Amino acid sequence: MSQLIYKIVPKALWREAEAAGSFTGAPVDVADGFIHFSTAGQVRETAAKHFAGKDDLLIAAIDGSRLGAALRYEPSRGGALFPHLYGPLPLEAVAWVRPLPLGADGAHAFPQLEQE
Questions:
Q1: CA distances from 47 to 20, 30, 69, 99 (A)
Q2: How far is CA 110 from CA 27, 73, 84, 97, 105, in A?
Q3: What are 59's strand-pairing partners?
Q4: CB of 1 within 8 A of CB of 65?
Q5: Would you identify the CATH topology of the domain 4-99?
Q6: DSSP string covering 26-91
Q7: DSSP for residue 4
């Protein structure tokens, strides 16, 4: 059974990862020592908090069950457990990638997410 987690990423950064064959993280991920992900229930708050007003973004759905022991759920905002990946993200674990445009209201327009 898949366990989808989500990553919001600038389109240009994701295209670099596709060319390289793996995603090593955005600058904040590299600085923190792990790749930040969100669950379906967390990703909208993540978008509002860290990507407000930003366009040219993608949302990637990752099958967390394919990441093994490098994926850990750790306390973050308000003590909630967030998925963190300690190592590069192999693109084979990516279920899909879709645009994450800004809607007319200025909030991001999300595609349907699993486990909502």
A1: 25, 19, 26, 13
A2: 23, 23, 21, 12, 13
A3: 8, 98
A4: yes
A5: ADP-ribosylation fold (3.20.170)
A6: -HHHHHHTSEE-B-TTTHHHHHHHHSTT--SEEEEEEEGGGSGGGEEEEE-GGG-EEEEESS-EEG
A7: E
Sketch the domain layout of the chain as residue ranges: 4-99
> Strand pairing of 57-63 and 71-75?
unpaired
- Work out the angle at residue 71's Cα, subtended by the Cα atoms of residues 8 and 81, and round it to the nearest 5 degrees: 70
C-alpha closest to that of 103 among 59, 65, 64, 53: 53
Condensed to tens digits (0 to 9), the pLDDT of residues 65-108 reads 999 999 999 998 788 899 999 999 999 999 999 999 999 999 99
Q: What is the pTM of this model?
A: 0.93
> Nearest 5°: CA angle at 9, between 88 and 7?
65
Count of residues for the chain? 116
